[in-house]
From TrEMBL:
GO molecular function: FMN binding; oxidoreductase activity, acting on the CH-CH group of donors, NAD or NADP as acceptor
Organism of derivation: Azospirillum griseum
Cellular component aspect of the GO annotation: cytosol
Name of one Pfam family that matches: Oxidored_FMN
Family: Belongs to the NADH:flavin oxidoreductase/NADH oxidase family.
Alphabetical list of Gene3D superfamilies matching this protein: Aldolase class I (3.20.20.70)
Record carries keyword Transport: no
Keywords linked to the UniProt accession: Oxidoreductase
Protein's recorded name: Alkene reductase
Higher taxonomy: Bacteria, Pseudomonadati, Pseudomonadota, Alphaproteobacteria, Rhodospirillales
Signal peptide (UniProt feature, chain positions): none
Cofactor requirements of the protein: FMN
Ranges of residues in domain NADH:flavin oxidoreductase/NADH oxidase N-terminal: 13-348
Length: 375
């Protein structure tokens, strides 16, 4: 059975075990992917990265920070890749450390598309995107802030190689690095999301126009990655109403419902949807529809929800059958032992936003666990 045990209105809560595809979770408290910009030489994970993830091994599942699938995929300084041997060796050490600490870990695979800069591209080339439409705003290049450049629209003939990069990184993740699977990053305005949403996809070939055509890139990636490592080790993240990275769509509810229905045929390990709770910075904007409930009603596999959940909100969402599991971003960043804190109703450490991106151990591996506080 590759489908999860879905919960529809039961007495389950965050501490009820759950199976996501091939992965058995002791609890439903997922660590959301968090870019921390602390990879080492050649964008390979380091011993410090391994320590950080191992500290968080009590999560039901760790989803790692977004990880490049090829050398055109990067958009921020010091984010890890999974397309060279050195990077694969770095991830192997991360997987071993998390497994030794009793955890489970999948890596999030991304291509940033237009959310990049020639400084990150081979030979200083323009970033790649479905269409030559620049994001409004600025990005941090490591040498200060720069306006987003106008990307180069991909030729149709270039797309199959990008699809293969996702599958190749998935193989490296599972067969070479020993990670438990991958999460395809279809959210937050990066390349796959740029194809999915009609603000950023103005193509006239088979990858643009109708929602089926805009979803073709994603579907081909899922086809290739599930073929490469097995559908029960592949998850997908979407953010249908997210505005981050200057994103919008003319009909998020209709379009993403169509996408979610099409996902059923893959039997993925899970679908992970960002839709912030009321008041959260990732909540749908004023007047925008909420889509998570609609996706739940058409998508047959396991659903993880994310965006500003407290322990009580998460337990309620699971009990009501709105989701099978909940992921936590900032709470996990600042609380390596989040499940124990939830179980004991203990206070949470506050995250320090000044140390989110870049730097070393400070604000990364030095958040205290309860035991340390008590000692
Ligand atoms: C520092 C930081 C880095 C993030 N990096 C990623 C990322 O690499 N991939 C991703 O899909 N989301 C990323 N996110 C979004 C989080 O996964 C999550 O959706 C967001 O923090 C909302 O969940 P929360 O309210 O539980 O924190 C990041 C968020 C933060 C704060």
């Amino acid at each position: 059975m590759s489908q999860s045990t879905q919960t529809q209105g039961t007495s389950a809560d965050l501490f009820t075990p759950l199976r996501l595809g091939a992965i058995e979770l002791p609890n439903r408290i997922i660590m959301a992917p968090l870019t921390r910009s602390r990879a080492g030489e050649g964008n390979a994970p380091t011993a410090l990265n391994a320590e950080y993830y191992a500290q968080r091994a009590s999560a039901g599942l760790i989803v790692t920070e977004a990880t490049q699938v090829c050398d055109t995929a990067q958009g921020y300084p010091n984010t890890p890749g999974l397309h060279t041997d050195a990077q694969t060796i770095g991830w192997r050490a991360v997987a071993e450390a998390v497994h030794a600490a009793g955890g489970r870990i999948v890596t999030q695979l991304w291509h940033t598309g237009r959310i990049s800069h020639p400084l990150f591209q081979p030979n200083g080339a323009l970033p790649l995107a479905p269409s030559a439409i620049a994001a409004q705003g600025q990005l941090y290049t490591g040498q200060g802030m720069e306006p987003f450049p106008t990307p180069r629209a991909l030729e149709t003939a270039e797309i199959p190689a990008l699809v293969r990069h996702f599958a190749d990184s998935a193989k490296r993740a599972v067969f070479d690095a020993g990670l438990d699977g991958v999460e395809v990053h279809g959210a937050n305005g990066y390349l796959i999301d740029q194809f999915l949403r009609d603000r950023t996809n103005h193509r006239t070939d088979q990858y643009g126009g109708s929602v089926e055509n805009r979803a073709r890139f994603l579907m081909e990636i899922l086809e290739a990655t599930t073929h490469a490592i097995g559908a029960d080790r592949v998850g997908l993240r979407l953010s249908p109403t997210g505005a981050f990275n200057d994103m919008a769509d003319s009909d998020p509810l209709g379009h993403f419902t169509t996408v979610a229905k099409a996902l059923n045929s893959f039997n993925l390990a899970y679908l992970h949807v960002i839709e912030g709770r009321p008041g959260h910075h990732m909540a749908p904007a004023e007047g925008q529809p909420h889509v998570a409930a609609a996706l739940r009603s058409v998508y047959k596999g396991a659903l993880i929800l994310n965006g500003g959940y407290s322990r009580a909100d998460a337990d309620a969402a699971i009990a009501k059958g709105e989701a099978d599991a909940i992921s936590f971003g900032e709470p996990f960043l600042a609380n390596p032992d989040l499940p124990v804190r939830f179980a004991r109703n203990a206070a949470l450490n506050e995250p320090d936003r000044t140390t989110y991106y870049g730097g070393g151990a400070k604000g990364y591996t030095d958040y205290p666990a309860l035991e340390t506080v008590a000692a």
